[in-house]
Amino acid sequence: MSFASPVFIVFFAVVLAGAAILQKARSPRPRQVFLLLASYFFYGWWDWRFCFLLLFVTVASYLTALAKDSKPAFTLGVIVPLAVLGFFKYFNFFLSSASALLGRDLGALRIILPVGISFYTFQALSYVIDVHRGRLPVERDFIRLALYLSFFPQLVAGPIVRAADFLPQLDQDRRVTTDRLKTGLQLMAFGLFKKIVLADHMSVFVDDIFHAPAAFHWATLLLGVVSYSVQIYFDFSGYSDIAIGCARCLGYDFLPNFDLPYISQNVTEFWRRWHISLSTWLKEYLYIPLGGNRKGTFKRYVNLMLTMLLGGLWHGASWTFVFWGGLHGAALVVDKLRPHREHGAIGKALGTLLTFAFVSFAWIFFRAETFADAWTVIRGIATAQDGIRQPFFWSFVSLAVLAVFTAGAVIRARRTGAEPVTGFYPVLPLDKVWGLAVFFTVLGLILGLAYTGENPFVYFQF
Question: What percent of the chain has pLDDT over 70?
Fold first, then answer.
């Protein structure tokens, strides 16, 4: 069940109505049980069998966290989610890699990748680790823990929500209110606009480019690379907006997951603004445990590289993803090596342009199916390859929308004196005519310009 499908609108309306009715009960338990059942129904819409896998991870995390002072229990609590993730997502990848290394076919298993497995296993890991570290009290209520791991807005593609951020909200009087609906529905509308009006239309062009890169003119290839950079941003940030909006409508708050990443002046800043929940998770549960920057300069750079290589592998079972992570790891190391100075407007603009160019170059390996396809794209651009010229209207529209959004955020920051610039939405005043006009214009554009083909969110595959 995709956020961008009519069936989800019906599902969400039923859940919203049910949650509003049940909030009148004296105890929060009926509402929590209702949301838990709705979340499992949502997940089971793809394949009901994977509900048992989600339940297994939940039970394992619950039981091992109860024995928080037991080192074997903690070890098991870490191993179980990693084993589940490793088997379903990486077993055939490592088997095929071993086959290539040994020069013999070791076969493969027919494994269906459960949607969202990378996200809920990471949430389970963070819960068990935080409990073991003493940063979080043990959750002895199984229903509450199960709701945390399965809550449908963030279940299949994030954001990766920390237990410390979500579980305390279950103790609070979180209700469906008019104010929450005003902001939540706006976030959902903005997210849908990004996804089905901008990203999905651009995906048609991008898919053509990466399917047969040798056939296109170098300028078209370059436009395709830039288009993918914008597409994946609108696609994933759009999903995050919808997820945050859904949760807000139901009374719960998620932290922002994107913050105008393409205005970053260096790669370090980019990772503070892109997929914030993942970059924070990697820092707290991988980079710092590896030693962070506490064991000398060389070890710091090694830790950065390992973190980004594993971060690349998290995105997909392919060496192209690992290479993409390695590129970002190397860029982070270079960023730490060079001296940082205050730059003027021209220096900042140049830094932003170079960072965007690097990130877009790295996206080639993220999007390409194979290294051969990636090199074909790069070689075609570098050698001014001749071929099909195909300017794509929606690419320019999307770039213009991105530029307007960014300019609006910069202007707003200057007016308010905010630093750094952030891209969080100002909530439209729906009690004013102009606010209603803008909101219903967005809805009209969604209905009139929506891409109607089957095009799942990019991060569903991770």
Answer: 96
Query: Phi and psi (nearest 5°) for 24?
Result: -80, -10
Q: H or E element: which one contains 411?
A: helix 393-416
What mean pLDDT value characterizes the chain? 88
Structure tokens at 278: 């993942």
Domain assignment present for residue 324? The answer is: no
pLDDT band at 383 (very low <50, low <70, confident <90, very high): very high
163 within a domain of the structure (yes/no): yes
Question: In the chain, how many domains are there?
Answer: 2
Domain span at 127 = 6-176
Beta strands in 270-319 (DSSP E): none
What is d(CA 305, CA 164) in angstroms, rounded to the nearest whole number?
28
Cα-Cα-Cα-Cα dihedral sign, residues 84, 85, 86, 87: positive
- Same domain, yes or no, for 217 and 170? no
For the stretch 17-32, pLDDT in tens is 999 999 888 888 999 9
Which two tokens mark 78? 């870490």
Q: Taking 70 as the threshold, does the pLDDT of residue 251 lie above it?
A: yes
Confidence band for 459, pLDDT divided at 50, 70 and 90: low
Domain limit, last residue, from 131, 148, 176: 176
Residue linked to tokens 């059942």: 37
CB atoms within 10 A of CB 291: 13
Amino acid at 40: Y
Structure tokens given for 419: 């630093």
Residue positions counted in the chain: 462
Of 136-145, 171-180, 267-276, 436-445, minimum mean pLDDT range: 436-445
> Residues with catalytic annotation?
315
Residue/partner pairs of 454-458 with CB below 8 Å, 24 or more apart: 455/4, 455/200, 455/203, 456/2, 457/2, 457/3, 457/4, 457/157, 457/195, 457/235, 457/236, 457/238, 457/239, 458/199, 458/231, 458/232, 458/235, 458/236
Contacts of 248 (CB under 8 A, 6+ apart): 180, 183, 184, 187, 254
Q: Any idea of the CA torsion for 414, 233, 371, 210, to the nearest 10 degrees?
A: -120
Are 111 and 194 in the same domain?
no
- 289 prior amide bond cis, ω within 30: no
Q: Considering 131, 147, 176, which residue would you say is the last residue of a domain?
A: 176
pTM (predicted TM-score): 0.90
